[in-house]
Design goal:
Blueprint: H1 8-31, H2 33-38, H3 53-79, H4 83-108, H5 110-114, H6 121-141
Keywords: Membrane, Transmembrane, Transmembrane helix
Transmembrane segments: 12-31, 58-78, 90-111, 117-135
Protein name: DUF7704 domain-containing protein
Length: 171
Amino acid sequence: MTTTILPLWPHILFAILEPLSLIGGWLLPILDLNSFITDQIPQLVATHSTIHPTSVALAYQLANLYGLLCILGLAIVYSTTEPIVLRNYFIALAVADVGHIYVTYLAMGWATFKDVGAWNVLTWGNVGVTTFLLMNRILYLGGVFGVARASSAPSIWVDHSKASVAVKKRA
């Protein structure tokens, strides 16, 4: 069985559930572009039925980024044998989580943002799930779930036992 150096809960969350949610974020605009665009802000009534080509481009670019995050996340959590790599990765994601929540807030405005009962599925993903992931990243970084175990075993992606690195001394 392929595993990570993460403790059990962070492994389940960041190596299984989060990549699955990113696949969902990648697929949604492909399967239902109009809803993906128009549902970004709950309770917003579209003033016209055509979606601007810029919105289409941005939706597909966002989908592409979700796909990229999924691939990078899987590569990092399943290939690293170094706890510091995971720490730095989770710090970077936590910063991005704060940015994601903030720009969603800016687009929604305070009144819609605080009206949690009126949130739609996309808002729950953009704010609710992202906040849940952020809190779990912070708890992991704080050691609440245990620490990543350093591994001397070779990665599933690169056979480190056959790799060699030449280091030149500086004069």
